[in-house]
Amino acid sequence: MASVPFDRRPGHIWFNGEFVAWQDARIHVLTHGLHYASAVFEGERAYEGRIFKLAEHTDRLFHSAEVLGFTIPFSKDEINRACDEEVARQGLRDAYVRPIAWRGSEMMGVSAQHNRINVAIAAWEWPSYFKPEERLKGIRLDIAQWRRPDPRTAPAKAKAAGLYMICTLSKHAAEAKGYADAMMLDWRGQVAEATGANIFFTKGGVIHTPTPDCFLDGITRRTVIELARRRGYELVERAIQPEELAGFEECFLTGTAAEVTPISEIGPYRFRPGAICQRLMADYDGEVRGRPAVKAA
To answer: Is this model's pTM higher than 0.90 or not?
Structure first.
C-alpha cells in the first residue's frame, strides 16, 4: 500500500458521524482549515487491534480544539468508539490512526467563527516510521535551521496543523542532505525535539530530556518516562544546551510514529545505541502490546 496515494486507498473513513467510502471523504478547496491551518489532529497506533492510550489521545484532541477556539461536535466517547470502529472496519491489526478536526468552508477569511467544525478519522497499515535497518543501528539527524517558537507566539500545547510547517521544512532539508530527520532547537537556542518526536539523552546511567515548555509533552514521551522510572533509572527534565550533546552517550527519539528509535548522530555529535535505549525499546513494545516487562508500582 505504500505506493498508493492516500486519496485512492480502499475502505472507509469515519466522516462527521458516518462511514463513507475512502475516496469520497472530500473537502472543498475553500475549506478554512486548508487556508488558515485551523485544524487539530492526533496520531495514534493500534497494536494487535487495540489503539494504545486512545482516551489520552482523544483528551488531547479536544484540548487542542479548545486552544484553537472551537468545539468538537461529538463527545469523547463517540470519538473513541469511532476510532475503534474505523480500525475494525478497515480490518487492521497493527495500524496508524489519524483523527482530525477542522473549520469548514462556510466563511473564508481570518475570522471564521461560524464555520462548521468537521471531524474525520482514518486508519491505515503503517510499519516503522524509519527504515528497519536504520532504526536498529541508530538514525542520523541534522540540526534544523528552523526553531520551535516562543509559546507566546504560537499555541505550543496544541497538536495544531500549522505548527508542523517548520517540521516539514526541516525534515525535507535534512533528507536532502542524507539524514533521516532533524533535531530542532527552540527560540532560546536550547534543545527542543525532532520534527515529530521528543528526544532523550543518557549520561552515566541517568536519562536527560528537555522540559516541554514550548513543544508537546508527547503521550509516548510520558509513557517512556514511566517505563524508565519503573526500571529504576534516574530521569531529569531540564533545559539542555546544544554544546552538551558532546558529553552524552546514548540518544533516542520517542513518538507514536517513531516509537522508541535510537540515534547515532546529530550533526557533528555521535552516539552509540546501548543498553538503556535497547531496554526501553523492548519495554515499550511490551507495554503497547499489553505485555509489560515491569509492572507499575
So the answer is: yes
